Amino acid sequence: MTDPRIRNFCIIAHIDHGKSTLADRLLQMTGTISERDMQAQFLDGMDLEREKGVTIKASAVHMTYNAKDGHTYDMNLIDTPGHVDFGYEVSRALLACEGAILVLDASQGVQAQTLANLYMAIEADLEVIPVINKIDLPAARPDEVTQEIVDLLGVDPEDVIAVSAKNGTNVEAILEAVVAHVPPPPVELEKPARALIFDSHYDSYKGVIAYVRLMEGKIRKNDELRLMATDTVLKPVEIGRFEPKLTTADTLYPGTVGYVATGLKSVQECRVGDTLTLAKETDIEPLAGYEPAKPMVFAGIYPVDNEDYPVLKDALAKLQLNDAALVYEPESSQALNFGYRVGFLGLFHMEIVQERLEREFDLDIIATAPSVEYEILMKTGETLRIDTPANLPDEGSISEIREPWMRIQIFIPDEYYGTVMDLVTKKRGIFIEQEYPAVGRVLLVYDIPLSEVIVDFYDQLKSRTRGYASMDYSLNSYRAEDLVRLNILINSQPVDALTLIVHRTEAYNKGQSLVTRLKDLIPRQMFVVPIQAGAGGRIISRATVKAIRKDVLAKCYGGDISRKKKLLQKQKKGKKRMKMVGNVEIPQSAFMAILKLDD
Question: What is the model's pTM?
Fold first, then answer.
């Protein structure tokens, strides 16, 4: 049985192809938001989302549309994040829908994440409605992009809808296409309630608010509910729908999208992808596809002023309330004192968290260079996981070190084929296959270590292709590699925040490059400061920061040479004593030098 008046759909696209602007026009066209309340990127609530022009959190909204066939339809729109770091959230949001609007930029055409999101939508068995946006741009080429979509999807050119979301041109055709092509959701009233959580956010009054799509059964406001992954039982504070403000309701029916205010104090208990059901149902199967969010990139975050450590601790705890993928634990460093080791979904996620710490909590922070999680197989047979190079066990006790490898898809004009191939080869990438989805454009697929991607790979890719390249990546596997720890010693003291894990063949070059950079960045002291790089139990590179020398002979005019020697010897002893107790101050730029090793 289906409810013929309900349509659940989402908008998917590559970054900056106009998802949020199109969502604005749909809200206006259906009268969901009055002209007075309207603002650009309405569904993007965070200041950072507006400034960067990207959606970071998924959001949902219920609209009522009076179609040309004379019927009124309940439409649930889910606006998904476009960035590759949030791919898991996108995949859950897709499962909450029956249809997807695939948006393409009329000037850019098919991009890497267009393909990635499209394949996700096809896997989720969604009805795809192709839309070409930004036809008002001077550089728009709607006919060519239409042909790209026809080649990609095998649809009729008549079914491709050309719009300008900015001006509102032809946007109503999208709503009519949703009514005509997106199937209504199945309605299973008699079955036990099962709801998919596709996102959540924290509210200081109502606790964690779970965004749910009810697959089967119904949920009433007084029902006792259970989260299946964490086995948490709760009594909802309220339930309701997004219109677009949270609007309470007594019952959520199957096929609808709504929210459940759980009253829980942490999003860790209410996870994206989990199944919400009635507490009394004990022998029910959870919905497929749940997996806990797994951080891929790790970095040390330290306060510049040690007195800010408690503020940093509170700030991370508050950010984690809204972000289940953010994990952190305390760590200390000889150079930077006390801070936290923080795990992120990817580099973009890391950038967002850093900006929020600085902006929302007024913190001055130092972030160390990002690293990845390694699997260490010991000779004893046990397997360790480490996310900081300083924790790598002694080389003699290790059987093998495995590092994460990514499957990356790079979409470029074919004239940049050679320069991209050169870049990936230098980064230890392995060519897998290539496709030509559109004329003059090539999709290259590689396997590449994540540690090579997280530093400056994307920047180099963009600069080598004049900004035309687009990239998508996903975790492929862990592979054993010949890796070693590269230690950096400053004034004979190892600096754990500058430690790296590198491929043995690159240890000498990277060690020498880093030592040379640090020599220019570390300020001169009153004593000589040696900087050394060591790998495999031996020093492989050294440079010396010369001492600032005070002229102790300034007052000696002539006289016996032994008097001058005596003064110089006295100075030498003083510097030796100072070196024994002297700390070398290492600037933030020294930690960032690791990011520019390949320049």
Answer: 0.72
